[in-house]
Amino acid sequence: MDSTRSELLQSTPEAEDGNIEYKLKLVNPSQYRFEHLVTQMKWRLQEGRGEAVYQIGVEDNGLLVGLAEEEMRASLKTLHRMAEKVGADITVLREREVDYDSDVPRKITEVLVRKVPDNQQFLDLRVAVLGNVDSGKSTLLGVLTQGELDNGRGRARLNLFRHLHEIQSGRTSSISFEILGFNSKGEVVNYSDSRTAEEICESSSKMITFIDLAGHHKYLHTTIFGLTSYCPDCALLLVSANTGIAGTTREHLGLALALKVPFFIVVSKVDLCAKTTVERTVRQLERVLKQPGCHKVPMLVTSEDDAVTAAQQFAQSPNVTPIFTLSSVSGESLDLLKVFLNILPPLTNSKEQEELMQQLTEFQVDEIYTVPEVGTVVGGTLSSGICREGDQLVVGPTDDGCFLELRVCSIQRNRSACRVLRAGQAATLALGDFDRALLRKGMVMVSPEMNPTICSVFEAEIVLLFHATTFRRGFQVTVHVGNVRQTAVVEKIHAKDKLRTGEKAVVRFRFLKHPEYLKVGAKLLFREGVTKGIGHVTDVQAITAGEAQATMGF
What are phi and psi of 429, to 5 degrees? Predict the structure, then answer.
């Protein structure tokens, strides 16, 4: 483990892109140099979508030189001036002494620079919460978002449940969203001090939206829907220290790997067991992560220094998997997780988001509500383009393959009003008196110019992960593609009669109920009982609304 960490701590040469900047020293720069440094800071902030990390005392090639105290003080003063010029805040993350050939002690200082982009309210990061039933997912989120520790009997999670049967059983069956904010100085902003959701949004420069998913096997379809449709930036896999890898833990781990969602692990309930039991659970996790199927580099976080390193390495390399051990009752090591979440940068770069924003509007419908005095409201994610209040869009496909016109009356993000929605952001849109009965999960709202295509038949290249016997023509599975979830029948397996576990093939599927809007290249996941497979859509057979009615027998 230590050898892994020492490898990670060795600075690599500075990258041109990304949000990390090495600076040897910033002592009394000339006006021209200062302007150049400010421009450079703007670029790094843009790359990190509002966040940048400056490492002072490090050469561009990654050599850890360090600075004497006087030079370091002058450099931090210059950095402060630069941040003020661009309207950003700075927080010192950590200081480290370096062994360098000199009598004077020399240090390296790591500084977080944060500025909310002009066109946004706050920086946004979506984290899906996975783990076996009773591992403490809702309790941990309750403690993080409410700001008070649990009493050991689940008091912290009561505010998170959405249904009476969840409160009675203590088990999550639906998807709920919880928010945790950090202000520009890196301090936690949550529901403590009787704040409302609107106040949290106003006081925060960074928001973590936790997507609380169900742990019970019975609700696995809900968990898969949460991972495929809500497009989380990363996942938090919770493992109970006293039970280790049990129940759906392996399945959730497999889902995160299959959907290529980077994840970190939290070992909870350490207050319930002896130190040796916690160590055994961590060793078990490390063994699983190093297996050929995972290829992950586990990194146990035991100090604030580790948490800072883990956040940076996690963002740079999807193979690094930080492991935290904490308790929601005693609060042990809870601060390390908060430090990690505060520093964790957005995992998609600004260039990707810019490209998505240039495309036509496409909003995935994941939830549908009726709100008194507001009317029909839909929740979901904007996968491309920009959506504004008053936009005219079309929604579909309906059961007979049509798209219907509608108008976006208002937009809310994290329970506070918002004028403009950008690609990759999740929100709820009010549609006024639009008939709720015409909507369903899995629909898309797109700009009319897109001329969206629909299909009942599509082909996908798949890998059969597990099947008890052989997978052949006529087999029915539940297919998950983004926010689409529907039963489909296998019409043809190209170049083969049947498939066995571990085999690859191109398969033609046909939806049984109604046509759907699919895109080539979209990730696909299917299941039926113990049968599971993953893949991506390779071809869609586009049809018109008239053809859809004839095909589906309307």
Answer: -115, 130
Q: State in Å, rounded, how far the first CA of the chain is from the last one.
A: 62
Q: What is the three-class DSSP state of 386?
A: strand
| Predicted pLDDT at 215 | 57
Q: Are 156 and 150 in contact (CB under 8 A)?
A: yes
Does the N-terminal peptide bond of residue 292 adopt cis geometry, omega within 30 degrees of 0? no
Other Cβ atoms closer than 10 A to 419? 10
User: Tokens standing for 5?
Assistant: 């960490």
Q: Which residues contact 31 (CB under 8 A, 6 or more apart)?
A: none
**How far is the C-alpha of 16 from the C-alpha of 20, rounded, in Å?**
9
Query: Residue 185 has what DSSP assignment?
Result: T
Q: Position 331: which residue type? A: G
- Give pLDDT < 70 ranges for the chain: 1-13, 100-101, 117-121, 150-174, 194, 215-219, 348-350, 545-554
Question: Residue 464 and residue 506: Cα distance in Å, rounded?
Answer: 11
E strands present in 467-511: 471-472, 476-481, 484-493, 498-499, 504-511
Regarding beta strands 123-131 and 362-371, do their DSSP bridges make them parallel or antiparallel, or are they unpaired?
unpaired
Does domain 351-446 sit in CATH 3.40.50.720? Answer: no
Give the 3-state secondary structure percentages of the chain, helix then strand then coil, rounded to 5.
30, 35, 35
Domain ranges of the chain: 20-115, 123-347, 351-446, 454-541
Residue type for position 122: F
Please give the Cα distance from 507 to 504 (Å, whole number).
9
CA nearest to 62, candidates 113, 9, 105: 9
The residues, ordered by sequence, that sit 6+ positions from 101 with a Cβ below 8 Å of its Cβ are none
* Residue (of 264, 347, 342) closest to 304 by Cα position: 342
Give the pLDDT confidence score for residue 553 in this predicted structure: 56
C-alpha 482/C-alpha 485 separation (Å) is 8
User: Which has the closest alpha carbon to 22: 51, 46, 58, 64?
Assistant: 58
Under 8 Å between Cβ of 374 and 239: no
3-state SS class at 63: coil
In this structure, the strands spanning 20-23 and 51-56 are parallel
Q: Do the domains at 351-446 and 454-541 have one common CATH topology?
A: yes
Give the CATH class of 20-115. Answer: alpha beta
pTM higher than the cut 0.85? no
Query: Which helix (H) or strand (E) element contains residue 429?
Result: strand 426-430
pLDDT digits (tens, 9 = 90+) for 433-465: 999 999 998 999 999 998 888 999 999 999 988
- What is the SS3 assignment for 476? strand
User: Domain 123-347 sits in which CATH superfamily?
Assistant: P-loop containing nucleotide triphosphate hydrolases (3.40.50.300)
Q: Which class would CATH give 454-541? A: mainly beta
